[in-house]
Amino acid sequence: MPLPKSAYLSEVWKDGIFDNKVVFCTGGAGTICSAQVRAMVHLGANAYILGRNVEKTEKMAKDIATARPGAKVIGAGNVDVRKFDSLKNEAERCVRELGSIDFVIAGAAGNFLASIDQLSVNAFKSVMDIDVLGSYNTLKATLPYLAESATKHKSDGLTPCPTGTGGRIIFVSATIHYSGLPLQTHVSVAKAGVDSLSNNVAIEYGPRGVNSNIIAPGPIGETEGMERLARMEDSQSYASTIPSGRMGRVKEIADATIYLFSDSGNYVNGTTIVVDGGAWRMHSANPGSGFKYPDFLLSGEEVTGVAGLKKSKSKI
Ligand code: HXC
């Protein structure tokens, strides 16, 4: 569904800042990543989004293209970030069809609620593979193009490069591993790995002009992530524990993306932008999912009332 600009982008950014640029985004059909890409497309970029579900990915690509007349947005479905060869082929196709890869958003992730008791070894591995290996695969498949774009679009920080910015990657992470969170062991471990990956990319590829940063979204309303993490009837009371007093909006993640990818982010490298209304500072007081701590863990009950439920094979 075409969205009004106010749903995915603030008024502070200038149209055309990403003209002739291409953004490559895994997990691009998801609620958060599609807003990030839509904002980039609105401001001039063309886009290549990847996902596992063919219909959902192609439909989202068409939808995102409505953000700007003449925009080219390709939706590549049936792509699993756990398979490097598949990503490499897609990166090559992106460059063939759209001309370059200037920006990457590594957004594909897996999540569900499960205690360590409920989490089988294979369930843990699935999330590690999607988040950590998938992010690494995305990086490896796109780095040559990012480095090329960085070389073409250098800025000394005073004079903006006349051809704009390029050669930047954002890893979409989380905040749960800053303090730890019940029922999220698998994701906490995985996101800590993703953060380390981004930091090291900045160290090794910064000298070649590539900027690598993390956006760590907190509780963002109306997203698949929140549906998987919180019982909806609890979301109102949860919002009242967030220092900013409400859930975030996908637009607020998109704005952080534009900040990092545009001229405003030239000297921002190897860091994390947390967009969470201060929520992570309250983690220790509130598990944030409606499962009372520690009673739920001690009860041996199974998780119910959230999206992404599946009977785990784990038994200890
Ligand atoms: C316990 C579960 C489970 C659940 C799956 N498993 N769901 N165990 N509780 N709710 C177990 C399965 O039983 C199986 O283990 C293993 O995980 C793999 O499951 P599959 O379905 O075979 O794997 P796969 O198809 O690869 O699915 C990956 C997935 C799934 C991560 C498990 O949920 C998925 O595809 N998610 C993608 C979409 C998604 O998660 N979006 C949310 C992103 S939001 P056994 O032992 O039975 O073989 C996000 C926000 C993070 O990431 C930030 C938080 C703040």
From TrEMBL:
GO terms for cellular component: peroxisome. It catalyses: a (2E,4E)-dienoyl-CoA + NADPH + H(+) = a 4,5-saturated-(3E)-enoyl-CoA + NADP(+); a (2E,4Z)-dienoyl-CoA + NADPH + H(+) = a 4,5-saturated-(3E)-enoyl-CoA + NADP(+). It is an enzyme of class 1 (oxidoreductase). Its EC number is 1.3.1.124. Keywords: NADP, Oxidoreductase. SUPFAM superfamilies: NAD(P)-binding Rossmann-fold domains (SSF51735). One of its GO terms (biological process) is fatty acid catabolic process. It comes from the Eukaryota. This is 2,4-dienoyl-CoA reductase [(3E)-enoyl-CoA-producing]. The lineage of its organism: Eukaryota, Fungi, Dikarya, Ascomycota, Pezizomycotina.
